[in-house]
Write a structure and sequence with these properties.
single chain; 254 residues; mainly beta; Porin; nine-stranded antiparallel beta sheet; two-stranded antiparallel sheet; 1 helix; elongated; disordered C terminus
């Protein structure tokens, strides 16, 4: 019996290596492909903006439509703040959009009249503006460069004051002026629904002619015709923007 058990153990020991050699090699499994997240700019968005603006204004005296002379120019500068709402859709690397923007503004400026130096000062202010634009952009994943263009509107005030006293003696009706705008921006999506941008815009506003009347200050009776000026205006804006977008999630690309 003992010899039989020893013989069996010996046979098992000899057979084990041969059986292991007969086993097939473990098949090679290819690693899963890398998945890259691609940002999709498609969707509605709403946001806020703030920055700085400058409006160049030149006054010409034109009573009865006759050019008398230039009264000079000035820059009305100050801060702006507001919001925007829009929609974008992405086709490949191209992004198209529509946007409406409304801003409070405090762009003020003045200059001594060249026709009445030391007597009268021309003053202007933009209280607010709006932009209604279309956009075309190029996206590199979550970075978007875009250009825009469309219509612009400003809320303007114009005054004439006594130089040195700042007493307003003549005014016009507050005016809403329409024109055009072009701009460009660079936007970065730092989260699935959030992005930040810096944008420059130039507004081309039409020339407008205004009649000034006295307001009863500075020794002038109220309601008298004071003068007529043709005022040229354009506006430059630099703003920082933050947007929140919904729709168009980040998609996976293999």
């Amino acid at each position: 019996m003992k010899k039989f058990l020893l013989g069996t153990v010996a046979l098992v020991a000899l057979a084990a290596p041969a059986s292991a050699a007969d086993l097939a090699a473990r098949p090679y499994t290819k690693a899963p492909p890398m998945v890259a997240a691609v940002y999709d700019w498609t969707g509605f968005y709403v946001g806020a903006n703030g920055g700085w603006g400058s409006s160049r204004k030149c006054w010409d005296a034109v009573p009865l439509g006759i050019f008398i002379g230039s009264e000079g120019c000035h820059d009305a500068t100050g801060g702006v703040a507001g919001g925007q709402i829009g929609y974008r859709w992405q086709a490949g690397t191209w992004v198209f959009g529509l946007e409406a923007q409304g801003n409070w503004a405090d762009l003020r400026g003045s200059n001594d009249s060249l026709l009445f130096p030391g007597i009268f000062t021309n003053q202007s202010k933009i209280d607010a503006f709006g932009l209604f634009t279309g956009q075309i952009g190029y996206a590199a994943n979550n970075v978007l460069f875009y250009v825009k263009g469309g219509a612009a509107v400003t809320a303007d005030r114009f005054r004439v004051s006594l130089t040195g006293t700042d007493t307003v003696v003549a005014t016009t009706n507050d005016d809403t002026r329409w024109g055009g705008v072009v701009g460009a921006g660079l936007e970065y999506a730092f989260a699935p629904n959030w992005s930040a941008a810096i944008e420059y815009d130039h507004m081309f506003m039409q020339d407008r002619t205004y009649n000034f009347t006295t307001n009863g200050a500075g020794g002038f009776p109220a309601g008298l015709f004071f003068g007529t000026d043709r005022i040229k205006q354009d506006v430059d804006l630099v703003t920082v923007r933050v947007n929140y977008k919904w729709g168009g999630p980040v998609v996976a690309k293999y």
